[in-house]
Amino acid sequence: MIVQGIPLGAKVPVDIGIREGMVRSVSKAASTQADRGSPEAIIAPTLFDIQVNGAFGIDLLDPELTAADVERLNQWLAQWGVARWIPTLITAPFETLARGCRFFTTLRQDRSLARALPGIHLEGPYISPEDGPRGAHGRAHVRPPDIDEFDRLNEAADGAIRYVTLAPEVEGAESFIRHVHQQGVVVALGHHQGSADDIARAVDAGARLSTHLGNGMASQMNRHQNPLWPQLAEDRLSASLIADGVHLPPAVLKTFVRAKGPNRIILTSDITPPAGLPPGPYKLGDVDVEVTPSGRICLPGTDLLAGSGLMLLQGVVNAAHYTDLSLEQAFAAARDTPARLFGVDIPLSQITVGAKADFIVFHRNADTAGGPPKAIVDAVWIDGTPIDPPSQS
Fold this sequence. Notes:
Layout: E1 2-7, E2 14-19, E3 22-28, E4 36-44, E5 47-52, E6 54-55, E7 58-59, H1 67-79, E8 82-90, H2 94-107, H3 111-116, E9 120-123, H4 147-156, E10 161-166, H5 173-182, E11 186-189, H6 196-205, E12 209-210, H7 228-233, E13 238-242, H8 250-260, E14 265-268, E15 280-284, E16 287-291, E17 297-298, H9 312-322, H10 327-333, H11 336-342, E18 359-365, E19 374-382, E20 385-387
Parallel strand pairs: 1-4, 5-8, 8-9, 9-10, 10-11, 11-12, 12-13, 13-14
Antiparallel strand pairs: 1-2, 2-3, 4-18, 6-7, 15-16, 16-17, 18-19, 19-20
Helix pairs in contact: 2-4, 9-10
């Protein structure tokens, strides 16, 4: 098979010969009938999405969730070039979270799923109980940080909890952060209304990430004394951002990227179970949400978002369009930067003879209205395995 395109960071297209999942040849583009791609296509590394809650009605906290559901979700993400992703378990009763931890631990006994799922994200339950910063998390199950509970959850996960998102202002947060940090688990700040002092104490204790910065916050705040500026100013905090143009307006996204710098930005989707479903009312756990005709997922009748319907590849393209990030930097923010933060071993992306094929081939359709181009997938290989591209209009 001949794949044609411009490798990320290069200027001219090449022909890549692939056989049995391996790169067999790389040469200057000459083929006029490549099997995949084109002279304008881009050949880029596969992606790592650190915040996936579900999609197409698959809810990762559903008590009826099956291995087949996760396999289907994994395959769907792979079609869009996501080779690795972290399942997110949101605020819920202890036994629900423990069941989820045990479930994913069992799944990770499968070698291919262990590679695709490098760990678990607990988003809550140790977040702000207040309307606004709490977002779509159920109030009834929000609770203060509990070291013993976390240790039991991590035991249920066989030590696979990669990070936990919490509010730095709640009672017990500082000692909890120190404990979790000492366990080698990344602590992220999110769904909170912490003061500058709360944030400083949390970072001193070991917090290293802001979860979907600019979201999970009160709709109205003091213009200067609020949780946003201290997190932007703190160089020890990386920031995950949802680049769908809805969670962060383009000008805000651009400003955040400039404040944090390209090496402290992580692009994520925060994709949720209603993603990909028709407009209408749905449930996110026991919380009512709706999908609007525009695809926005929110709490009914409010401006409070409940995750996104974004595919990470499109978020990468959006970020390169809206901000100062080059496309190469945007891909790094959706692969290399999170891998470094979470200590996930991701092989060097290389297009050389003898290497396994592991890349996305896609092109960008320009938006005549001036918006970001639409990412259209031509082909995907993950660890030498070809993945059928998604159906796209």
